[in-house]
TrEMBL record:
This is Response regulator. The modification 4-aspartylphosphate is found at residue 55. It comes from the Bacteria. PANTHER family: ARAC-FAMILY TRANSCRIPTIONAL REGULATOR, HTH-TYPE TRANSCRIPTIONAL ACTIVATOR RHAS. It comes from Cohnella thailandensis. Residues 3-120 form the Response regulatory domain. Residues 442-540 form the HTH araC/xylS-type domain. Keywords: DNA-binding, Phosphoprotein, Transcription, Transcription regulation. Transmembrane segments: none annotated. GO terms for molecular function: DNA-binding transcription factor activity; sequence-specific DNA binding.
Length: 544
């Protein structure tokens, strides 16, 4: 008998799936439920379900984050994605390469049961299979791409001995002595911008779309298979294969292929990508060397040659500048300007540095990335200065919490990024120095006490008081013994008990007064907090 897990924060949606699903037909002996991805992971570890239906939009942990955990820790688990968004025409096919199916809300009985039948048939075949290799091979749209990805990654990372894994190598065609190989590293320069504009801030969907564009292109005898680099957020790895010919042919065709791909990504989605292709190799075991060269090639692309409106394809690396790109004296000037409260002087230091970079013969992407990270790190250290161990920290190596995208597709955008970083950090540092933190924490508590029924987010307070999220949460807990979210929950539950004393108020009315979206959600929260439902609490009080 199969065990199924439904993960959705809306109880009516879970109930609809229970009612519409033909569980008897797929021989499902148990159907479990979870209200968010975090609860779902706990149940997954404890109950070991065969199939999971997961909603994409949930509190605590959404569907995308849940799928990332599954991909890493449970790669053979069957999942069906459920989403309320119907404007991702390309996404349906993109996600299918990683999951069994993709269903849109409101759930259609026919679509749901067809997806369940498909999953059940493959699961049944899996349980009847004795060979692990055949077991993984029969899963078609789910396991084969993922298995190929794992094999290629293992080879690239040198975690597998090729000669000892002939069965798996047959799956990727590496048992053909006439095969030639080549690797390409693709970096997406405007990923955050396009994710926000075209993919509803779902970066995983953008990556799925990119890999599908690459994988769907094919030429006679020449194939390309791509997947996200788990270690570099904005990178896609492409493995090219060619049957026959001399080794050098695949290098030429790979570069030509990537020029076409980079152009199509720009036309379809507005994605600006740069790619670097490594040297051709004749043995699959040498693929790691080709990829390492591809990394060096893409790292060495000259930022000064990028125009911000088109991508770039490179097949050979260039050396970086010989001179030091930053110096202690320049940071000392920046420190002095910030400590003096002189924003224009601080900008002037960075502008002068940018002018120096602009005058170099070349500026590699790798060097530009290091410069940006070093600037943020040094500004963060400055924010901790003065011997105050409780000073609010700037986000480590990240500008996202300051509302700045960490991406650029031209030197002009890179220069603007440096200036924005200094501006944002300057105001954060100066405001933090002047803030009366104890007053701020008291005001936050007062706001929650008065507005507990609203959708309260920590970001509301970080922006108002110029404090980092981690530092703000730490101060609040030190002063009141609760985290901010815990305190909101406490106030709501205390108020709930008070309102339940009034027998004239219905549970639905109380739920709305407390800011819950429906009474079922409120009832669940109340039970979790007090170990009994609102109705049981009210009856207990009346009996007393």
């Amino acid at each position: 008998m199969l065990k199924v897990l439904i993960i959705d924060d809306e109880e009516p949606s879970r109930e609809a799936i229970r009612i519409l699903g033909d569980w008897k037909a797929i021989e499902a002996g148990e159907v479990l439920e979870a209200g968010n991805g975090k609860e779902g992971l706990d149940l997954l570890e404890r109950e070991k379900p065969d199939l999971v239906l997961v909603d994409m939009k949930m509190p605590e942990m959404d569907g995308l984050e849940f799928l990332r955990h599954v991909e890493r820790d449970h790669p053979n688990l069957f999942t069906i994605v459920i989403s309320g968004y119907n404007d991702f025409d390309y996404t349906r096919q993109a996600i299918r390469s990683r999951v069994v199916d993709y269903l849109l809300k409101p759930i259609n009985r026919q679509d749901l049961n067809q997806a369940l039948r498909n999953a059940a048939e493959v699961l049944k075949a899996r349980k009847q299979t004795e060979s692990e290799f055949i077991d993984r091979n029969i899963t078609l749209n789910l396991s084969v791409p993922k298995l190929k990805e794992n094999i290629y990654l293992s080879i690239i990372e040198r975690n597998v001995k090729v000669k000892n894994n002939e069965a798996y190598l047959r799956l990727i065609g590496a048992d053909d002595p006439d095969k030639r190989y080549c690797a390409t590293a693709v970096r997406i320069l405007n990923m955050e911008r396009i994710t926000e504009a075209r993919f509803k801030q779902e970066s995983d969907l953008l990556r799925f779309a990119v890999t599908n564009v690459i994988n769907e292109f094919a030429e006679e005898g020449f194939q390309s298979f791509s997947f996200s680099n788990p270690k570099i957020e904005k990178e896609i790895i492409v493995v090219h294969t060619l049957s026959g010919g001399i080794v050098g042919d695949i290098g030429f065709r790979s570069v030509h292929f990537m020029k076409k791909v980079v152009s199509v990504l720009k036309d379809l989605f507005g994605i600006l990508a740069v790619s670097g292709t490594g040297m051709p190799v004749q043995e699959i075991s040498k693929l790691s060397e080709s990829y390492e060269e591809a990394e060096k090639v893409v790292d060495s692309i000259d930022l000064l040659k990028l125009d911000g409106v088109s991508g770039f394809v490179a097949d050979a690396r260039v050396d970086g500048p010989k001179e030091e790109l930053s110096s202690p004296s320049r940071f000392s000037q920046l420190r002095a300007a910030i400590e003096a409260g002189n924003a224009n002087q601080a900008r002037g230091v960075v502008q002068d540095f940018a002018n120096t970079l602009r005058g170099l013969p070349s500026l590699r992407l790798k060097d530009a990335n290091l410069i940006a990270k070093k600037l943020v790190r040094e500004l963060g250290e400055l924010a901790q200065g003065g011997g105050d161990s409780n000073a609010p920290l700037l986000p480590e190596g990240s500008l996202r919490e300051l509302g700045i995208r960490e991406e650029y597709a031209s030197f002009e955008e890179f220069e603007a990024l440096l200036l924005k970083a200094v501006d944002a950090c300057f105001h954060r540092i100066r405001s933090s120095v002047q803030a009366d933190k104890s007053v701020a924490i008291g005001e936050i508590k007062d706001y929650i006490d008065r507005n507990y029924f609203e959708d309260i987010k920590v970001s509301m307070f970080t922006e108002k008081y110029f404090l980092s999220r981690e530092y703000l949460m730490k101060l609040f807990k030190q002063q009141y013994g609760y985290g901010i979210h815990e305190y909101v929950q406490k106030i709501r539950m205390d108020k709930a008990k008070e309102l339940l004393e009034n027998s004239e108020l219905k549970i639905q009315e109380i739920s709305e007064m407390l800011g819950y979206k429906d009474k079922n959600y409120f009832s669940k929260a109340f039970r979790n907090y007090f170990s009994l439902s609102p109705t049981e609490y009210r009856m207990k009080r009346s009996d007393g």
